[in-house]
Amino acid sequence: MFSIVIPTWNNLEYLKLCVNSIKKNSAHQHQIIVHVNDGSDGTLDYIKEEQIEYTYSADNIGICYAVNQAAALAQHDYIVYMNDDMYVCPLWDKYIIEEIQKLPDDDFMFSGTLIEPRDTGNLCVINANFGNNISNFNEKQLLENYRSFSKSDWQGSAWPPTIVSKTKWNMVGGYSIEFSPGMSSDDDFAMKMWQSGCRIFKGISKSRIYHFQAKSTGKIKKNDGRKQFLLKWGINQSGFNKHFIHRGKKYMGILHEPNNSILLKERFRAKLKIIFSR
After folding, report:
1. Partner of 176 at 20 to 30 A CA spacing, among 6, 7, 65, 76?
2. pLDDT for 28-54, tens place per residue?
3. How many distinct structural domains can be found in the chain?
4. 109, 198 in Cβ contact below 8 A?
5. What crossing angle do the helices spanning 225-233 and 185-195 adopt, rounded to 10°?
């Protein structure tokens, strides 16, 4: 049903857990495509031994190039972008497929609902600690409890695991490489989906994924994604999240263009920020 794209950068033990969870906990068999950055920790050998489809770069090329290369191998109608430090809970895909089947077209962007060990104040995730790394991960306890947390479907899907149709992915051109290595590329992709006519940005509560938050961003030189977003779209990321996709609110259905007074205010704020950031 899905072509699942997973970029990885020398994160072998997390990648193994992620791939195994997809094989073990999915209701359907999916195509898994891994982009291997470097792979000198044994990742490339593992991918070959397991006969997993992959793309490869000798050095880390960042999220945008990586997911685009991997997505080029997608065989199914829907593309899932997932991080390598995620563990999918049972039937995660079933609930997404049920949502897709309710819709008349592909003008949607879905996300699964993350369970994270550290509370970052993110209203879209469930905060519950089942381990913050491989060594202390309590898989048994997670599987016994992941369904017990009360959470409504939510607005503002933009980050992994995200699900869009391959048609829409190709229409908007995948992830924008000018945002390499990847800061703010998720919000940029969501804005491109908005510009293409997408008005459903839904986080699906029942589709649950554990996220270790084991980020690789500390090892890279980051792009100034917020400024790039501002210059590209003429609006702050915060304004897009608040007034366009209403991130963090309870799901409210098909969205509409913000009214003119809000747009004018946000664009004025954006101009001031551009002026004072020079």
Report:
1. 76
2. 999 999 999 999 999 999 999 999 999
3. 1
4. yes
5. 20
Burial of 49 per CB tally in 10 Å (0-12, 13-18, 19+): exposed
d(CA 153, CA 113): 9
Answer whether 1's CB lies under 8 Å from 97's CB.
Answer: yes
Residue with tokens 């997404």: 96
Predicted local distance difference test score (pLDDT) of residue 208: 98
Q: The domain spanning residue 252 has which CATH number?
A: 3.90.550.10
State the Cα–Cα distance between residues 175 and 154, nearest whole angstrom.
Answer: 23
pLDDT in tens, 183-208: 999 999 999 999 999 999 999 999 99
Q: Which residues have CB under 8 Å from 102's CB, separation 6+? A: none
State the pTM of this model: 0.94
Spell out the SS3 assignment of the chain.
Answer: CEEEEEEEECCHHHHHHHHHHHHHHCCCCCEEEEEEECCCCCHHHHHHHCCCEEEEECCCCHHHHHHHHHHCCCCCCEEEECCCCEEECCCHHHHHHHHHHHCCCCCEEEEEEEEECCCCCCCCCEECCCCCCHHHCCHHHHHHHHHHCCCCCEECCCCCCEEEEHHHHHHHCCCCHHHCCCCCHHHHHHHHHHHCCCCEEEEEEEEEEEECCCCCHHHCCCCCHHHHHHHHHCCCHHHHHHHHCCCCCECCCCCCCCCHHHHHHHHHHHHHHHHHCC
Range of the domain at 211: 2-276
Side-chain-side CA neighbours of residue 42 (13 Å): 8
